[in-house]
Amino acid sequence: MEIATTITAALTIYAFGVVTPGPAFVLITRESLVNGRLHGAAAAAGTTASVVVYAFATLLGLIALFEAFPFVAFFVQVVGAAYLIYLGVQCLISTACAPASAPSTTASSAAGNDTSRESGPTVHAFTKAFLIGLGNPKVAIFFFGLFATAIGPEATTYQRVLLLVGVVLIDLAYHQVLAFSFATETARSTIARIGRVVDAFLGALLVALGVKILADAIWARSATT
Q1: Sign of the CA dihedral 54, 58, 59, 64?
Q2: CA dihedral of residues 33, 196, 131, 158 (deg, nearest 10)
Q3: Is 154 helix (H, G, I), strand (E, B) or coil?
Q4: CA-CA-CA-CA torsion sign (208, 194, 31, 34)
Q5: What one-character DSSP code corresponds to residue 144?
Q6: Each residue of 119-134: pLDDT tens digit?
Q7: What are the angstrom distances between the C-alpha of 29 and each of 63, 85, 145, 184, 185?
Q8: How confident is residue 203, by pLDDT bands cut at 50, 70 and 90?
Q9: How many other C-beta atoms can be found within 10 angstroms of the C-beta atom of residue 30?
Q10: What is the pTM of this model?
Q11: CB 129 within 8 A of CB 46
Q12: 145 falls in which pLDDT band (50, 70, 90)?
């Protein structure tokens, strides 16, 4: 009964934590608004895939690797933060270089002028979200802290798998709903009027999140050395 309560509590906390806006929220939102539902769904799937990696790593006891070699976790966070900053800068550059009279990528997609984006390859969106998810310290803290506690030595294989499946389903459901919500005709048509402003805001937000993750990783690393 105690294990079941711990698992329920862990899933509840994760459900509240996953809706907190972060890098995944920004990326999925932008992919849905700019490139459409399929790209947004691919980004959402990439985010969930990174969660699966952390969950399996915890289940297999690989958390010990990060504890024994903290520079590994530091490296993962730095790479994730750098990639996040890179994506944000690319977004800002594309916005700044776009002619004032030309519609932004968001506006163009919302108006249906680039339908090839909707049906084109979505691997890039998946990969971006996956890499950002791996470098997100919020996810790492959850799995290396609360999640690891919930699947202590006394937990059975069934209970471990149940917790893993629960976390994955919660993450998948929320991020897919998020992608779908911002890819609707109404949302994209509304955003089309201020497309360049939205692109610039999301780009700046990506950079800010990347800088924060990088600063936190450096601070944590310096505190332990």
Answers
A1: positive
A2: -30
A3: coil
A4: negative
A5: I
A6: 446 888 999 899 888 8
A7: 31, 17, 28, 11, 14
A8: confident
A9: 27
A10: 0.69
A11: yes
A12: low
Whether residue 3 contacts residue 154, with contact meaning beta carbons closer than 8 Å, is answered with yes
What is the SS3 assignment for 221? helix
Residues 6+ apart with CB under 8 A from 29: 40, 178, 182, 202
Structure tokens that stand for 3 in this block: 């294990």
Question: pLDDT tens digits, residue range 26-57?
Answer: 889 888 887 888 999 999 999 999 988 888 77
Using CB atoms within 10 Å of the CB of residue 128, give its burial: 0 to 12 exposed, 13 to 18 middle, 19+ buried.
Answer: buried
Q: Report CA Rg, the chain.
A: 19
Give the chain's mean pLDDT. 74
DSSP string over 48-106: HHHHHHHHHHHHTTTHHHHHH-HHHHHHHHHHHHHHHHHHHHHHHHHHHHS-TTSPPHH
Q: Whats the size of the chain, residue-wise?
A: 225
Contact, 107 vs 193, CB < 8 A?
yes
Cα separation, 44 vs 100, in Å, equals 31
